[in-house]
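Retro notes, structure queue

What went well: the backlog is down to a handful. What didn't: a couple of records were mislabeled last round, so from now on we paste the full input next to the output in the thread. Example, using Diguanylate cyclase from Bradyrhizobium archetypum:
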Amino acid sequence: MTSTAVIIAFALAMTASVLGVMIWKALDAKRAALASGSADIQNLAHSLAEHAAHTIQAVDIAMAGMVDLLKYRDPEPDRFNRYLAETAKTLPQLRGIGVADAEGNWKYSSSPEIPRHTISDRSYFAYHRDTPDNALQISELPQASADERSSIVLSKRITRLDGSFGGIVAAAVDKDHFNRFYRTFQLGPDGGISLIRNDGTLLTRWPQSDKSTDLSKTDLFRKHLKQSSVGYYKIISPFDAIVKHLGYQATPHYPMVVTVAMSEDWLLSEWWKGLRTDALVAGVLLCMILMLAALLALQFRFRSKTERTLREREAHYRLLANNIADIIILIDARSLLRYVSQSVEPVLGLRAKDLIGKSCFALVHPEDRESVMQATTRLGGIGSVSTVVFRHYRGDGTLAWVESKFKLASETSDPTQTEFLCVIRDVTERKRMEDELTQLNRRLTQLAATDGLTGLTNRRTFDSFLRREYETCEEISVLLFDIDNFKGYNDTYGHQAGDRCLQAVAKAIGSATSDTSGLSARYGGEEFAVVLPNTSEDAA
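Corresponding output:
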C-alpha cells in the first residue's frame, strides 16, 4: 500500500473514531450522570430518613419517660414544669412540650405560662382518648394559629393504673429544625425535600410550597410504597409540574417517608456543559486530522529511529534496576504490577515474571493492606514521597518486614492513567531490633515505677502521683500505716517469712483499691500509703 493510501485510510479512520468516541462518550456520560444522580438522591434519602427518625426518637424517648412517671404519680407543678422546660431546652428540635389532662386542659407545660385553651377538639387528642395504645402519634399540622402551623405535633397517651385514659403528653417539633438542615444540601433550583406521614399528609417540605399537603393520591403512595419501603423513580412533581428524579425511603420505627427530588435538567447540567466542550474538541480534532495526516509521512521516517532509541534506554534502565539491592516496581491505577526488577528473587525469593499482572496487594499481609493503600493516597504531587513499613510474604510463605517508598511515576489529571513507582527494601532485621528495644524500654519503665517485692507502686511514683493530684483535686485523702511488731516477726521467723508477710499485706491493699481512682504504694520498709483523690476524711 502506498503512502498516499495509508494517509487517506488514516484520515478516514481518525474521523470515524472521533465521531464514534464522541457519540459513545456522550451517551455513556449521560448514563453515568443519571446513575450518579440516582445514587446521590438515594443516599441522601437514606441519610435524611435516619435523621428524621433520630429527631423523632429523641423526643419519643423523653415523652415515654414522662408517660411512665405520670402513670403512677402527679408531680409537683413547679418542679415538673421546670423539668419540661429543661427538656425543651436540651432538645433543639422542640418548640415546646406539655401535658393535658383527660378533659383536654393543659396541666403542665414547658412554657412560662400554662396555656389556657383546650385541645379536646384536636384529632390526636381524640385518637388517644378512644384508643388504648401507647404508641407515638405524629399528627398533621394544626391550623389554629401561625405558631402551631410551624410545628409537627407528637403525642403519647397517659394510661392510669386502672387502664383508664389519663390525658396525653404532647410535644411540638419545629418545622424549621428540619428546613434548616435540608437547605444545606445542593439540590438545584427545582430540587426539594419532603417529610410525609405514611397516609400521604405532608408534614414539612423544603422549599415551602402553597400546593396541597395531601399526597395520598400520588404514585408514591398508590404504587411504589406498597412495593418497597425504599426506591427511586422519575416523576412529574405535584408541586411545580417539573420532570424530576425522586428517591424515597420510609423512616425506621415511625410512620413517615422522606423524599428527595432533583430536576432532570439539574442532574444533566454538567453533562450538557461537557457535551458542548466535547463537541468543540471534536471539531478541533477533525480540523487537525488533515495536519496530522501531513505529519504522518514524517512520523514514518522518524519512527524507526525513535523505537531504536527507546529500546536502548529501556535496556539501560533495566540494567540499573536489576543490579541494585532494592526492589523496584511499577504499579498502575488498578493496583496491578506492570514492572518488577529482578532483585525481587534474591531479596524475597520470588520470580519477577510470575508477579507481572498480579495485584500489588496479593503478597501483602491482610492486616497491612489498608496502610499500604493509604500511603499512595497521601502523595501530593510528582515530587512527594510516601513511606510505609509492612509485612510481605516471601516465596517460601514466611513473612518479611519491608520498607516501601511510593512516588508518582508521572503527572496526570486522569486518575485511570496514574502510575506509582515503588522502591522496596527488606528491613526484617531492623524491625526485629526495634521491637526488642521497645520491649526493653517498656520493661524498664514498669520496673522503675513498681516495688520489686510487693508489686505495688514505689515511693517515687507515689510522690509524683500525690503531687499531681494535690494540684488538681479540690479534696484529697492520704492513708499512711505500717505493720505493728514487724521487726519482731521478722527476727523470729526470718526474712523470707517477713517478705511473705509484706506481700500478703500489699495484696490486700492493692485489692482494696483496685476499683477506685486511688493509688496504693509501698512507702518504705513495712510502711504503706494510699492516696484517694476527691475523697473526704470520713469516706477515706
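Agreed that this is the format going forward. Reviewer comment attached to the example: The chain has 15 helices and 18 strands.
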